[in-house]
Amino acid sequence: MLALALAAAVSAGAAEPASAPAPESSLPRDSADAAVVRGGIVFRTYCVLCHGAAGKGDGRAAKLYTPRPANLTISPFNDAYKEMIVRGGGASVGRSSYMPPWGDELTDEQIQDLIAFLRELRKTGA
Ligand code: HEC
To answer: Domain of 70: which CATH number?
Structure first.
């Protein structure tokens, strides 16, 4: 009985179209979606402590800082400004140095990916 069920499962599997795209090929490395996914990983590694998992400025360490870490889901700033404050830190744009500089810590690609992620965060508010 089990052998029969297995045989059925195997032949059902074989009926799948052989040309189904592999997961990698459905998310090319240079696609905008891939950048958002990578940026999300960078964000979860370096930014959530202050900005919170959803970017709302409510991370575990948020209440240690005045001014509070920004709510990135409603940030009024454009990509260029965000890149500037992420690279140089708050002090580099005349704001709080509690926002650390990341330019030496992260690669250019990681920063571009972060900006793509922040753009998406701003859109979805999630
Ligand atoms: C140690 C806490 C801390 C960490 C970690 C941190 N930030 Fe911040 N961030 C802040 C604070 C505080 C501000 C607000 C500064 C101000 O208002 O003067 C801020 C502001 C910002 C802003 C400006 C947005 C706006 O609408 O004003 C951006 C963008 C930003 N952070 C992105 C990031 C990213 C991306 C990371 C991770 C690479 C990160 N931050 C990590 C504390 C932090």
So the answer is: 1.10.760.10
